[in-house]
Fold these 3 entries.
Entry 1:
Amino acid sequence: MPVKKIGITALVPPELIFSCGVTPFDVNNVIPASRKYPGNKLCAWTAIWKDMLVKKEIEVDSLVVVAGGDCHNALVDGQKAAMSGIPTHFFFYPFDGDPEYLGSQLHRLSLFLGGIKSPEKFKEIGELKKQGQLLDKKRCSGKLSSSEAFRILISFSDLAGDLAGFSMIISDLQEKDIEVRNRVALIGVPPIFHDFHETAQSLDLQIVFDELPYEFIRHGGSNIQEIAVNYCGYTFARPLEFRIDFLKNELKRRRVDGVIHYTQFACHHMLEDEVLREKLDYPMLTIQGDLPGNTPQQVKLRLEAFREMLDRQ
Ligand code: SF4
């Protein structure tokens, strides 16, 4: 019998999904290259995956919508997708970081997924995340390009649905020797432009930190209790001050010269821009995207001007 495919709309501990004998599929990962332009939308990310699920252009056996935590639009578009007949579970992170609450959410999720059948998957994924951490370090020291690193790190949300295959992809990466000038952190939700990292690189901006993908590799645990405690530190689901404290340490540790804050049209995270600018003491460029595709020319021009400003510093 084929392994069931579970659509996820944001970070849902993949350790638990795989250990229940089913496979996660992050519905966001197909969007940047999709070239889809939805008619009725706020945020293009949720509008596109909702349309694709309803039209069965993405086929899943069931869906887990992160309805409380890191995305408000997903709550509504997730319900619209559920109305098309897909068995759907709504998952909530605790804003106050209460591990008991998250533990109860994870238990409910495991029931929805049929219960834990392969507990060894917790450890197997833990080992893969160690490889992810190593890869992240390599790109910080110029041993890997930021575009290659990003492509792998962003896939840690669902580990490409294939643990052995994903491990091979990581092992096959060839080390490079890249001069890392203009060390830049990319914060906020990931850009909807599929070539953003290559574009930044071509303009001599080396992205040494991808905020959201880093969340995908830094949480884990070997059972439900441990992942409940650990995933309570998922910064996007917590108060802004919690996230900013984490960011300050990470930006310092990676010795960044500047910050790019990517915002998405009609996303509530846009409202955080002024606070991030006030609290993070770095030159900051805020850009906004809407529809998937190549990085637009005006964004390229702004990246170039930002690089010139960093050069002068
Ligand atoms: S960009 Fe914002 S609104 Fe859109 S899916 Fe991400 S968190 Fe949700």
Entry 2:
Amino acid sequence: MNILIAYTTGAGSTERAARLLQEHLPGAVRANLAEGFPEPSGYDAVILGSGIWFGKIGKPLRQYLTQYWEVLKEMDKAVFICHALPEETREILRANFSLQMRNSCILVESLGGELDPSRLSAVDRLRLKARKPQLLQMVREGLVPAIDVAKALEFAKTFRDTVDPPEVVFDQKTRRLVEVRQ
Ligand SMILES: Cc1cc2nc3c(=O)[nH]c(=O)nc-3n(C[C@H](O)[C@H](O)[C@H](O)COP(=O)(O)O)c2cc1C
């Protein structure tokens, strides 16, 4: 199974989540959209990912979706986002992905996020203070978000089971049903 994981990242956490998915999707290829746009039609299925900055997905993913929508809309696909405020997930997904996109995806999920306070620039702090004070407050209280590893693994498994379903056979030796893939 030829799977493309195409993502955009500001500070690296979406890339870490993409690596995690790749590790659990044998043969999957990873592509950072900031380095170029891979042709999706060369793949059997696509996973699209982005970090969230002030409620928005990264520009490279927005452009990729526009440029390749005619191809992507027909493909098996899923979306994940990485962000810090779980209470915003629904609204972020609604605001950044069309209903047609969301409805045509196998999965559309947040896999958590990361925020290293020591890497926040003075400008970021000022912008956060003005637009996302709750995020700054969270960081001040030491509530640092993390990638939800269990959710990422579940995401990879569900995606793989949907696009490349295993055959279930009876194993004579263990006398149990087991999943087999060619
Ligand atoms: C300037 C800035 C703005 C952010 N805006 C949001 C936001 O609107 N909502 C949210 O849930 N998280 C927000 N975050 C947290 C990021 O989404 C989180 O750190 C995410 O893991 C970033 O992904 P990336 O490392 O792939 O860029 C923001 C972080 C920064 C530094």
Entry 3:
Amino acid sequence: MNDTLSNSAVLSAYRARTPGSAALAREAASLFPSGITHDSRHLEPYGVYVARAAGPHKWDVDGNRYVDYYGGHGALLLGHGHPAVTAAVAAALAEGTHFGASHPRELAWARAVQRLVPSAERVRFTSSGTEATLMAVRLSRAFTGRPVLLRFQGHFHGWHDHMAAGYTNHYDGSATPGVLAEVAAQSILIPPNDLPALKAALARGDIAAAILEPTGSSFGQVPIDAAFLHELRRLTEEAGTLLIMDEVVTGFRASKGGAQAAYGVRPDLCSFAKILAGGLPGAAVAGRKDVLDRLDFAVAARTGQEKIQHQGTFNANPISAAAGTAALTTIAETDAAEAAAAIGAALRDAVNAVFAEEAVGWGMYGTFSGFHTFLGAPGVTVQPGAFVPETQPMAVLKSQPAVLSHKLRLALLVNGVDTNGRIGGFVSATHTADDVAHTAAAFREAVRMLRAEGELVVRS
Ligand SMILES: Cc1ncc(COP(=O)(O)O)c(C=O)c1O
């Protein structure tokens, strides 16, 4: 473990509250690499082990309650255990988990997608967002006959070989361990919001598709300029390059119809996961019929073009289909996306007020129902609580002071708030004003704990 933590009162408080998690983490160390099953759950000395969850809250195995901003990695716009979703899952479970056949629930699920996402002329379900972006890339290459994928530095699209570089490192697109250099060479990465770089890339004439997180990397940690998004649409169309909007996070969250509806930009293809399946595993690629036709047997026979093969044991499994249909129907018929965004804005305001009152040069920012916390960077002065991310380059926004953010994360957990490792997260439609007040108080207490052990540069 990091030596700078060994004498930390924050760490002692964390350990004192979480002995049950510590015991499970010891067992996990002999089962999983690093004792975890997803890189973002890596936390020293160990993460909390959660026993149950309801609405916006979860409880660890030691009985501590957390206001949850992990939100099932963004899947839980409707909070934990939404009654419509759990009832739909129970009904589907009683009828069988896998039929090895088409089934009515997959039709209802796809119709629920089409109801909210007009660009989804056709839908193909997969099991994960990673698979959805993989299929979107393959469709694009097959449809255009071009080899190269255009990506934006810092944008995340899952962990398959075409997406492994450029999220937290390898911004030059060079191969990461285990990925063939020849494969990595067929993706090019450019900085977000860089119009000249975009034009130069498209001028190559060999770009099959451009893919992006439409509100910016990690749900707007590095925001995408709306004007850039519109230009990207115009220029890709002009260049015969497909535009893939990766709506795995933004889908049904940025608005009922995702970022594409919020910004009025129609992609050729889009990928969905998370909210799509109501908190269960499930994802989809959707978009133009003529592009998804590359998966169609009859079209292949008619045109003589070899079809793209696609299997997947759990594609459109009935349980996920039931959960997803219930979640999407609820989102269509309520103001869940707008309500979560409103609570997100209230949270950002409340925490920024704390930063201002505590005279700490940090800022909480974000769009829709997301938030990110900027904890300072060398040479960057922030008016406490009034941070404007658009004024900063990606390198500044993406780099957080490691020890400080680590201690802050632990201090927030000690005070009953669970964020991601970047001190960001997702607000659900079930978070309330009480949760906002609790979170603001937790940030205040965390700031004071860090100040007490000399971690803060105080502005006067
Ligand atoms: C924007 C984006 N695309 C793709 C993925 C990959 O989805 P999955 O984790 O379901 O493979 C994620 C996951 O967090 C994501 O945030």
